[in-house]
Write a structure and sequence with these properties.
75 residues; alpha+beta; five-stranded mixed β-sheet; 1 helix
Length: 75
Amino acid sequence: MSKGSQHVVANKSGGWVVRRSGASRASRVFETRGDAVSYARYLAQREGSELYVHAHDGTIRERDSYGSDPMPPKR
């Protein structure tokens, strides 16, 4: 399975879409940002990838990583 990051972005025609990095089409379209984030978080956890939640203006509002950390904190 590909480890493409999941992005939640505002849809031009309203609502929110979940899109994999590099994809031209959306995976799914949602009416609310919360529903889109929940679905994208599920995909990112399942694939061990990154999750990016964008604001309406396109800036990254939130970011989470669900894969193995290449530089884990020292204990």
